[in-house]
Design brief:
Peptide Deformylase; alpha+beta; binds zinc ion
Length: 200
């Protein structure tokens, strides 16, 4: 099919606009009822599952990015509404490397923002984490295979690049490392049901 120069330029603008900033579909999610929680995508829905299974992209513009700020706000409102201990952007239909997780390792149990996170090292051994659950996999719990510790880096809510070591643990102690692994999986298009292990 032939395409003229103007058409090509138009397509180029559309393509780069969606790649480097938030697309109109994503903006609709962010700014429809901007002060309310978003709908959580469910694996049982065919369209939702396509987005949940799609690997996310890094956020390029960290500073002064109103859309990113609105995404964080939406994630926070949605996590509170759903009583989650973490939530990742793909779960509300935004395929970006952004998630929130509870810092159970801290006494105040603060909510932390992770932008463009990476797992830089991990334990040689695994644990079988009991009763993993996910807002996108309703009415189900199961054991998932996790590293017993991970070392990670990400950009936090202060726009600072930070490095931490988190423990996988169990539900009765600090399991920040497992929450992080669970949310990190989301941005890779993976879910806890993909890594089952035998419950004790
Ligand atoms: Zn989940």
């Amino acid at each position: 099919m032939k395409i003229n120069k103007i058409g090509f330029l138009f397509l180029f603008i559309i393509f780069t606009a969606c790649k480097s900033s938030f697309c109109s579909r994503e903006k609709k999610i962010l700014y429809t009822n901007p002060d309310s929680p978003a709908r959580v995508l469910k694996i049982s829905d065919k369209k939702d599952s396509l987005l949940l299974r799609k690997p996310s992209k890094d956020v390029r513009k960290i500073e002064k990015n109103k859309d990113l700020e609105q995404l964080v706000k939406k994630l926070y409102l949605t996590m509170l509404e759903e009583n989650g201990v973490g939530i990742a952007a793909p779960q509300i239909g935004i395929n970006r490397n952004v998630f929130l997780f509870y810092r159970l390792d801290k006494e105040e149990k603060t909510v932390e923002l992770a932008i463009n996170p990476r797992i830089i090292s991990y334990s040689p051994e695994f644990i079988c984490f009991q009763k993993d659950g996910c807002l996108s996999v309703p009415d189900k719990y199961g054991a998932s295979r996790r590293y017993s510790w991970i070392e990670v880096e990400y950009i936090d809510q202060n726009k600072k690049k930070v490095t931490h070591k988190f423990l996988g643990g169990s539900r009765t102690e600090d399991y920040t490392g497992t929450i992080f692994q669970h949310e990190y999986d989301h941005i890779q298009g993976k879910l806890y049901i993909d890594k089952p292990c035998k419950s004790n």
